[in-house]
Amino acid sequence: MSQLSERPAEAVVGLPLPHESAALHVTGEALYIDDLVVRTRDVLHAWPVQSPHAHARIVDLQVKPAYDVPGVVRVLTSDDVPGVNDAGVKHDEPLFPDAEVMFHGHAICWVLGETLEAARLGAEAVQVEYEPLPSLVTVREAIAAGNFQGTGRHLERGDVETALATAAHVFQAEFEFAGQEHFYLETHVALALVDEAGQIFVQSSSQHPSETQEIVAHVLGVASHAVTVQCLRMGGGFGGKEMQPHGFAAIAALGATLTGRPVRLRLNRTQDVTMSGKRHGFHSQWRAGFDADGRLVALDATLTSDGGWSLDLSEPVLARAMCHIDNAYWIPNVRVDGRIAKTNKTSQTAFRGFGGPQGMLVIEDVLGRCAPLLGYDAMELRRRNLYRPGHTTPYGQPVRHAERLEACWSEVLRGAEVERRQAEIEQFNANHPNTKRGLAMTPVKFGISFNLTAFNQAGALVHVYKDGSVLINHGGTEMGQGLHTKMLQVAATTLGVPLERVRLAPTRTDKVPNTSATAASSGADLNGAAIKNACEQIRERLAQVAGSRLGLHAHDVRFADGVVRGLQGGSLSWEDVVLAAYFQRVQLWAAGFYRTEGLHWDANAMHGEPFKYFAYGVAASEVEVDGFTGAYTLRRVDIVHDVGDSLSPLIDLGQIEGGFVQGTGWLTLEDLRWDESDGPHRGRLATQAASTYKLPSFSEMPQVFNVHLLEKAHEDGAVYGSKAVGEPPLMLAFSVREALRQAAAAFGPVGTSVDLASPATPEAVYWALDNARSAAHSPAGAARGGEAARGRGEPALPSPSSLSGV
Hints:
29% of the residues lie in helices and 24% in strands. With 806 residues, the protein is of the alpha+beta class. The strands form seven sheets. An eight-stranded mixed beta sheet has the order 3-5-1-12-9-10-11-20. The chain has a six-stranded mixed beta sheet with strand order 7-15-14-13-8-30, with helices on both faces. Helix 10 (356-374) packs parallel to helix 18.
């Protein structure tokens, strides 16, 4: 067992503790950035001037009328930028578009006012003349036009063509599925001010403060040390605040620099939804081959992501989607081509899973659609294709602990009484012609680490004060996921002190520099290891002090529960040892560092070992569908998930439940709609609020929700034997979509293959079950699964989007 993963007998990690700010959250006492505005004097408020066109040339911009509005102080345009007019890391996102607007809602300039209302009225007074240009709104339009951006990728193993030519069964289809709006509770917000020395201080709701610092610095034309970014906490992030906050923080910082006054920029919900990026929607084409025993022998797929108007993180999102197209299944011959469409939409960005869910959805759709055509129960087809020990991924990484997939699967089968319930569902469906139930099980295998190896590092700064109290700083950000809770537990465990002796400071770039984003589910892995490293340095120094006082060698000193004991007897209080160390001039603070070892990745060849380990899980979901409307109820969910030796079980359970529900929303409810017409509102996002964009609520929660952490799942080489938990549970929601497929197919004859849209809204489910009914009257339809319902009340497209055998 590695030193990093070894856990002491008396550990604070592993205890089921509530979130460290839970009481503050529910009482409303927790401070967020916008709460700080009332504590700051002379704040100016920012409001954007947004484009009413999806694509247009800016012919003329007149800002003078805005100054006639009482309370308007300044209008910010590209002419005001002293540094680089760019808000992205790929240098393709002008902070102020001085030539073209690239999507409906694109901010052209920003108005600063004494009040928010003054800024809003000032923005309305700005006069802009546009020359509309042709636009591409859908990924299909971009594909047809050959309009792509960034670097395409190719992943290949084995001989796909030969495997397909000799396969017993070959199927092919197209599958297009939608993106997802983050809809965090706290919208994008920044508060910037400049002190008397010219130091720029930005409070930003950012998952990546170091990158926010970098972007603000290059927009202002100053060095990074002149900018400090702090993130107190976020009201949700889900990946949407990894790249997207930087430009908003830069606007606030630019305004503060030019006016000498603090500037607050907070988007309202409509602005946030229309201006910020979302999960990438994907278009896929695939061919899949199976042998006579229902085992996958080959997969040939092309993935096209809808990147929006600029690259943002589209390239690594695509790479992760390609690396996860296998999900939990062994496919000996694989060929995947990936490309990024450029469309006139918001620049799509990171979202929980970072492309992994999109890649995994493709193979789950393949298996769900092909199972009845192969004559297999979908559950059995999935199980017989699971990874086994000794297998490697298509990109060459050994699948360590593959046996945990089978362990999770077996535990769900047993604990959820799946076989008994399947028999009950069969009987129910036979007796209810207008209501059907479905039960599906799906697995998850998700790689943990950043795609870019350099990001897999973290730092921490730990202070021990003379009274024995401890303050920790680390580079991770808290967005409600419980990272700070886990970090407090790690520090208390490593130092051997009670949890109440440890406090955590807000994340700031002037305390821990050059940090990676809190993303890729790696926040606890990276920052926990860095904190442990810093605490170990301090503990080793204190062991020398304690050993000399106890007459023992430092190696014979142990720290636990605020007491320092010798193996041969004798003890001292933690506070006494700390005070003695101070008077002996022993350093009581340390900077910790951690880098993930064992990673290597060739992005061009798409080969290597990019992940530290895999997280596993299995979910079983049961649904009931109304045959008249397609409305459905999620009756029961059972989950077994691998989190290693949990650092904080209560936090992990919350993450699993929340991730699953968010995944269910993506797959069944959250239907992004852009105006695709040729009318004056082309490219406008129609789903701009909770009234038009359906989010999961209590009514969508499963009536029975059982979550169990896989036991005996220690992960050697990770901090205290734990595993990441942020992203993997989201993909457990595939089981809900597949259960809906099963229920819809039950309206048709045995062997009906159902093409189900994603999101599988009630409307989409209705069209799927209606096609299944139609299959009862068409022998050819029963064999092929009917025509492909688009799931939006539209007839099937003439393109070959229905499943066909070859």
